[in-house]
Design a protein that fits this description.
Chain lengths: ~270, ~325, ~270
């Protein structure tokens, strides 16, 4: 079972030169992903969604408030919380082969276990469909394949919480759907908690149990929507479900309203 | 990948080991900085004839092509003895460096063996220092013995040295510079002074050393006062061996044997050396000559005032 | 599989085509060199240039070949290469280490960067004469000078390279709870390798230059000393032969470096 990860009254202020107050990125956000829940956070581009996720990963401290992992505040990257970056190409180690990239989180392990761990990593690569590419270098692979490597590496770290930072935004539409399905399958199998940040409303609905919508600047939580679509979900049938379309309509109008400057209540 | 690195390092390591050679000997080692020119022939004669070995010394010579590293190396402890010119020694002494002359090295006292002339292009019409005003003359280094006597000669022949441009050109390049009109006159040493006149076009118009100060003590062997007090016996033995070499040199300086010695350390062809007359090696330093040089240095503002020569020139050199 | 397959296929095809083109270009280069050498030979033989230091090229080649059978040039070259190798190893190790440490540590940066910036613009040959007082005229001096000359390009490139290491890479290491030292060694160092290689390549040519110059100024061994010695000994044929061997050595080292670079840093320019 995945661990709970929550934001407890989190405020993030960036110091800006020439300003006493600084730039308020988030104001008093309280939100928690339940154990093994798939939570999506949507917001328009540039609203600081990545910042929120980086705080959740312990990469960046909040100015006020706490990040709670199973109720306990975190300060540094905690074990079991794995981050999947949008820029997969920059997050892979170009000098390592695919298998060595996946091995990276496990290299603190005692030497005698390495052989078994390597076998495990081969299995992860098989799970993400990269059978036979163990000895390739990341730069020899396509974008979608590179993100698969990153996913396999995340699996190797045995994630209790997987943070997904717009992980499919840089690949083509078809690849994106394949990767979404892959992540869903892995999530259902491994039961980790997932927090996805995206600006793609359909992606959020398709993947998540709940969708949190971020509002105007300074960014605050505007609404949380239960998706309630049956699982396992399917790229064709789920997306054609009238409930899916209704949710899409609702969420899109929320985001559009924000963009046009109105804060509409629903 | 790592293997390539390791092999690379291993090869490099072996290479380094292979080149490093160890030497062992019971003889006391004296490290001498020399300039590979005819003037140090007595030292090499003494080495080859075994004079130093008889005294329990082993001489390790380090040639310094320009001579620039000599005195700094002596002060820094790389050498025990340095062959250097009189001006450098006096300059070093004025700067408070602890230098001591222990033996004479080079003396120019006979015009027929003075192979250090001032050369000009034969068609230039330059004959005196006066003619050189507004023109240029080359020396190997400014503020050294060559420079000093070039200035003295210009003055003695009616010119104003301050109206002559001094250019620094290494000896081997002088002939080309003269012929290509990049300089109008040059103060040059052997063997270059002899070689460059073997083809027509260049003429010697003066021999500043023998013209200005016959008998000038140009070169000396020097050490530090510290070594002189900590290892007086070693230094004394060195001076004795060297003097023996100078005596043999003087007795045989027209023989082919001496050419073989010089060719050995200068790497110059014996046929070239044959055309260069060798002057007698001095056995003793001459205080009055050094004083004359000192006065010239003061006159040309190389020295701010007189130096107590008795303190620089050790009695063993006299 | 198909991806890798296609990549290999196209690259092989490209090499076959460009090999022929490159060969064609190379012919022009060879012709030019041959023309220059011919002009040299003729100008010397016919006395267009009257100088004791302008021997016919054929005489230089002859001297160079004679030297192969046992002569001072190769011994001198070995002495120079030995010093250059040691100095290069010392200077580049320090350059990489300090470049990475200063790149990642603000405290060290504040403490050491001003000193490095002040010393950097000084041309290494200029510090050799004063250094003789402290280090003598032998290996210590030369290896120090070579290390110094090697250090700066390596340090500068490494330091700049560390600054351009993508934050995502470092954050990736952090989320996997990688220690500071391990991050330096396993993430920052390899990520900086392309920049380090560029610095090392600049340094190799400088290393040889400084090695030769330092030998010309002080000491009694090495190819630099040999050059001056032959100049004074009126043996220009040997002098040019030494220059020729030096050129060949420099060229070989550079080629070797490029080959090593391609083998050890295959991802260079690929990220």
């Amino acid at each position: 079972m995945g661990e709970r990860l929550g934001f407890d009254h989190v405020t993030k202020i960036f110091e800006t030169p020439g300003s006493d107050t600084g730039f308020v990125a988030f104001d008093d956000i309280t939100l928690e992903a339940a154990s093994s829940e798939f939570l999506a956070i949507v917001g328009p581009s540039g609203c600081g969604k990545s910042t929120l996720l980086k705080m959740a990963a312990g990469l960046m401290p909040p100015t006020k408030g706490k990040i709670l992992l199973d109720g306990k505040p975190i300060f540094d990257p905690p074990p079991g919380v794995v981050y999947l970056f949008q820029q997969y190409a920059k997050s892979l180690f170009a000098w390592r082969t695919v298998i060595d990239n996946v091995m990276f989180p496990l290299e603190g392990a005692p030497r005698h276990q390495r052989g078994d761990l390597r076998e495990m990593c081969r299995d992860y690569l098989k799970q993400v469909g990269l059978d036979g590419f163990e000895d390739s270098y990341p730069w020899q692979l396509s974008g979608g394949m590179q993100q698969r490597v990153a996913i396999a590496r995340a699996l190797a770290a045995d994630p209790q919480v997987l943070l997904l930072d717009e992980p499919f935004s840089a690949v083509d539409a078809l690849t994106r759907m394949e990767l979404q399905t892959l992540v869903l399958q892995l999530w259902e199998r491994r039961k980790f908690t997932a927090i996805l940040v995206t600006h793609d409303v359909e992606e959020a609905i398709f993947l998540a149990d709940r969708v949190a919508v971020l509002g105007a600047k300074p960014t605050a939580l505007k609404e949380i929507i239960e998706v309630g679509l049956p699982r396992p979900r399917d790229q064709l049938t789920t997306r054609e479900d009238p409930r899916f379309l209704k949710l899409r309509h609702h969420l899109t109008s929320l985001l559009l309203a924000r963009n046009s400057g109105h804060v509409a209540a629903v | 990948m790592r293997k390539v690195f390791l092999i690379g390092f291993a090869v490099m390591g072996l290479f380094v080991l292979a080149i490093q050679r160890a030497t062992a000997s019971d003889l006391e080692k004296v490290r001498v900085s020399i300039i590979p020119i005819n003037d140090v022939a007595p030292l090499f004669v003494a080495m080859q004839n075994g004079y130093f070995r008889e005294l329990g010394l082993e001489i390790d010579t380090t040639p310094s092509a320009g001579g620039a590293a000599g005195i700094p190396g002596l002060i820094g402890g790389s050498f025990d003895v340095v062959y250097g010119n009189v001006v450098s020694v006096l300059l070093a002494s004025q700067q408070g460096l602890d230098v001591k002359v222990i033996a004479p090295g080079t003396k120019v006292d006979q015009r027929e063996t003075d192979t250090t002339p001032i050369l000009v292009r034969s068609d230039s019409g330059i004959k005196s220092g006066k003619d050189l005003e507004g023109k240029s003359i080359s020396v190997n280094t400014r503020n050294n013995v060559i420079w000093l006597y070039a200035r003295a000669w210009i003055k003695a022949t009616g010119g104003d040295p301050d109206k002559v441009t001094f250019k620094e050109i290494p000896f081997p390049q002088v002939e080309d510079a003269l012929r290509q009109q990049r300089v109008d006159a040059s103060f040059l040493v052997a063997p270059f002074s002899v070689i460059s006149r073997q083809k027509p076009g260049l003429t010697a118009i003066a021999n500043p050393y023998s013209d200005i100060q016959p008998g000038v003590d140009v070169g000396q062997y020097i050490t530090t006062g510290k070594l002189l007090s900590t290892k007086p016996e070693t230094i004394k033995k060195f001076a004795a061996g060297l003097r023996k070499g100078a005596e043999w040199f003087n007795a045989n300086r027209t023989s082919d044997a001496i050419l073989a010695v010089i060719s050995g350390y200068t790497k110059t062809d014996a046929s070239i050396l044959k055309s260069v007359a060798l002057g007698a090696a001095p056995l003793r330093s001459d205080l009055t000559q050094v004083k004359k040089t000192m006065d010239l240095m003061i006159e040309n503002k190389l020295l701010t005032g007189p130096i107590d020569l008795a303190k620089i020139i050790d009695p063993m050199a006299l | 599989m198909s991806v890798a397959g296609t990549l290999e296929g196209t690259s092989r095809k490209r090499t076959a085509g460009s090999n022929r083109r490159r060969l064609g270009k190379r012919v022009y280069g060879v012709v030019l060199i041959a023309a220059i050498l011919l002009f040299w030979e003729v100008s010397s033989r016919l006395g267009w240039i009257v100088s004791a230091y302008w021997p016919p090229v054929s005489q230089i080649f002859q001297a160079a070949i004679v030297q192969l059978a046992g002569g001072d040039i190769l011994v001198s070259l070995a002495a120079t290469l030995r010093r250059a190798a040691i100095g290069f190893a010392v200077g580049s190790t320090l350059g990489v280490a300090l470049g990475i440490l200063l790149g990642r540590s603000k405290v060290l940066r504040i403490a050491l960067l001003p000193l490095i910036e002040i010393v950097r613009p000084i041309p290494t040959p200029a510090v050799i004469p004063p250094l003789i007082m402290f280090l003598g005229v032998d290996d210590a001096l030369k290896i120090f000078a070579i290390s110094l000359a090697t250090f700066f390009p390596v340090f500068t490139n490494t330091f700049a390279g560390v600054a351009t290491v993508d934050d995502t890479l470092i954050q990736t290491a952090r989320t996997f709870r990688t220690s500071w030292a391990r991050t330096l060694l396993r993430v920052i160092l390899p990520a900086t390798l392309p920049a380090i290689a560029a610095g090392l390549r600049t340094a190799t040519s400088l290393t040889l230059v400084v090695a030769v110059v330092s030998e010309m100024i002080a000491g009694s061994s090495g190819i630099g000393y040999y050059l001056v010695e032959m100049q004074y000994a009126l043996r220009p044929d040997l002098m040019y032969a030494a220059v020729m061997y030096l050129a060949i050595t420099g060229y070989t080292i550079n080629r070797l470096f490029l080959v090593l670079e391609a083998r050890l840093i295959p991802w260079m320019g690929k990220t």
